[in-house]
Amino acid sequence: MGSWKIQRKLHEYIYSATSRRLLSTTCKYGVLTTDSSPKLCTGNTRINSPVKSLKKTVVKLLSTDSLAAPIHPSGQQNVRDRFKTGQNGSNTETVGSEDVNTLGPVEERREFKHGRVPSQLVLDHFDRQYGRHFGSEWSDIRAALMAPKLNGLLLNNFANVSSKVATMLKERRLQNIFDICNISGKNMQFHLNEADGAEKDFDLPFERNCKNSKDTDANLQFYIHPENRHVRFPKLKHVPGQLKSYFLQGAASLLPVLALDVQQDDSVLDMCAAPGGKSLALLQTAKFGLLTSNEPDLWRKRRLVDTLQSFIPQEILDTRVDVTKLSGVHFQDVTPNIFDKVLVDAPCSNDRSWLYSKNIIGMQMRMEDRRHLPELQASLLRSALHAVKPGGSVVYATCTLSQQENDEVMESVLKQVSKNSKSRIEVINLNNLTENFQKVFRFDSLTRYGQLVLPYLDANWGPMYFAKLKKY
C-alpha cells in the first residue's frame, strides 16, 4: 500500500467514531462531542497511550512523507487543504466566490468571513510567537488576519474577455495593479545586494494598456480595487472546450512570479505548483521555453491539471507545459543543472488557513508538524539550487509570518551550500521590486534575506514571503 494510502487510513482511524469517543474522555485541552464541537475540559487527564502513540506515528509520517507534498491535517474539515502552496497562500489562492459584495466597515468585513470564529488556541500561539517578533505592530497584523483576505482578478490572456467581465471590472472600479503603482510602460530593475558582489540588472517588461491576446507574449493583467477594497466575483464553472476568462487569487501571489523574472526561452520549474495559480501567472508573463509544473500529491495534482486545462489552450499544454508528480527533494538528483528558473512555493503553516481550524486535536498536531516544516522547506530549497543551472535563479516563497520558515530557512541553506557545494550562491536584493508596489502592499522592514508582505486592515494582502537566489 502506498504511503499516501496509509496516511489516509490513519486519518480515518483517528477520526472514526470509536477514537472520538476515546479522545473525548482523555483530551487535556478539550473534548469532542458527537457533533465534533469543542468544549473546555476541566480535568488534567492525558491521552491514552495507544492513541497518543498512533498520533505520533501520523505526525512522523506527515513530516517525512513526499517532501514536496503538503502536510495533510488530521481533522475532517478541509482535510486536503491544510498547507496550501500557492501558496497562501501564498499560497492562498482561490478559484472563485459567490456574488458581488463591496467593502463595508471592519465588522461587516469580518461578518463576510462566513461567520467563522478564529481558534483561541491558535491565536494564543500566534500571540506568543508573533507578538515577540512584531512587537507593537502585532495587534494591527492580528486584526487583519481575522478579517477577510482580499482577492484580485488575473485576466486570462488566452481567453476572450466578455463584455460582461469588462462591464464588471468597470462597475467595480477595478484597475490593473501595474497602473495603480505607475510601473506600466517602464522596466523594473533588479540588482544583486551590493554587499554580495558586483551589480547586475534584470529587466521585467510591462507595456501600458496591454490588450487581451491569445499570444503568450501578453503581459500580466491583474485587477484590484485601487483603495484595496474587498470585491467579490461570480464563480466561474468549467465548460469543456471553453477557457475561463479570469482567476481569483491574492495580489501578493504575483510578487514571487515577478521576482522570478522569466525571460524568453527559459526552462522553468514550479516545484510545488498546486493549485496552479502561480503556474497560470507564469504562463501569462513571457514566451518561455518549457514550464514543468510539479505536484507529488495525487489529489492536489488533479486540482493542478484541472486548473491548467480550464485556463490554458490544449496546444500550449501539449507543447510547453509538463505536469509532473516528483517529490521535490529528488529534482537535485533527477534534473541537476537543468532549469533556468525555479519557483519553490513551499508547503508552510499558512497562518490564515490555520487560524480557522475547528478541530482541537488537529490544531495540536499542526503545532507539532510546524516544528518539522523548516527542515522540509530547506530540503526543497537545496534541491532547487541543485536543479537550477549556473547563471539561473531560484525564488523561495511561503504564505506565513513565521521567521523560522522564512529568513531562518534561507540562512540555514546558504550556510550548508557554502560549505558543501562548489557553486556560489548569492542573494538578490529585491528592494527595487518592492518599492514599485508600496502603494498596494505593506512590507516588513526587518527581513534579512527576502521580502515579507504584512497584512493590515487597509491593505489586507498576504502574508507572503519571497526571496531570490542566483547560482554561479
TrEMBL record:
<keyword id="KW-0949">S-adenosyl-L-methionine</keyword>
<feature type="binding site">
    <location>
        <position position="322"/>
    </location>
    <ligand>
        <name>S-adenosyl-L-methionine</name>
    </ligand>
</feature>
<dbReference type="InterPro" id="IPR001678">
    <property type="entry name" value="MeTrfase_RsmB-F_NOP2_dom"/>
</dbReference>
<feature type="active site" description="Nucleophile">
    <location>
        <position position="399"/>
    </location>
</feature>
<keyword id="KW-0496">Mitochondrion</keyword>
<dbReference type="GO" id="GO:0003723">
    <property type="term" value="F:RNA binding"/>
</dbReference>
<feature type="compositionally biased region" description="Polar residues">
    <location>
        <begin position="85"/>
        <end position="95"/>
    </location>
</feature>
<feature type="domain" description="SAM-dependent MTase RsmB/NOP-type">
    <location>
        <begin position="178"/>
        <end position="472"/>
    </location>
</feature>
<feature type="binding site">
    <location>
        <position position="345"/>
    </location>
    <ligand>
        <name>S-adenosyl-L-methionine</name>
    </ligand>
</feature>
<dbReference type="GO" id="GO:0008173">
    <property type="term" value="F:RNA methyltransferase activity"/>
</dbReference>
<feature type="binding site">
    <location>
        <begin position="272"/>
        <end position="278"/>
    </location>
    <ligand>
        <name>S-adenosyl-L-methionine</name>
    </ligand>
</feature>
<keyword id="KW-0694">RNA-binding</keyword>
<dbReference type="InterPro" id="IPR029063">
    <property type="entry name" value="SAM-dependent_MTases_sf"/>
</dbReference>
<dbReference type="GO" id="GO:0005762">
    <property type="term" value="C:mitochondrial large ribosomal subunit"/>
</dbReference>
<dbReference type="InterPro" id="IPR023267">
    <property type="entry name" value="RCMT"/>
</dbReference>
<keyword id="KW-0489">Methyltransferase</keyword>
<dbReference type="InterPro" id="IPR049560">
    <property type="entry name" value="MeTrfase_RsmB-F_NOP2_cat"/>
</dbReference>
<comment type="similarity">
    <text>Belongs to the class I-like SAM-binding methyltransferase superfamily. RsmB/NOP family.</text>
</comment>
<dbReference type="Pfam" id="PF01189">
    <property type="entry name" value="Methyltr_RsmB-F"/>
</dbReference>
<keyword id="KW-0808">Transferase</keyword>
<feature type="binding site">
    <location>
        <position position="295"/>
    </location>
    <ligand>
        <name>S-adenosyl-L-methionine</name>
    </ligand>
</feature>
<dbReference type="GO" id="GO:0031167">
    <property type="term" value="P:rRNA methylation"/>
</dbReference>
<feature type="region of interest" description="Disordered">
    <location>
        <begin position="70"/>
        <end position="99"/>
    </location>
</feature>
<protein>
    <submittedName>
        <fullName>NSUN3 protein</fullName>
    </submittedName>
</protein>
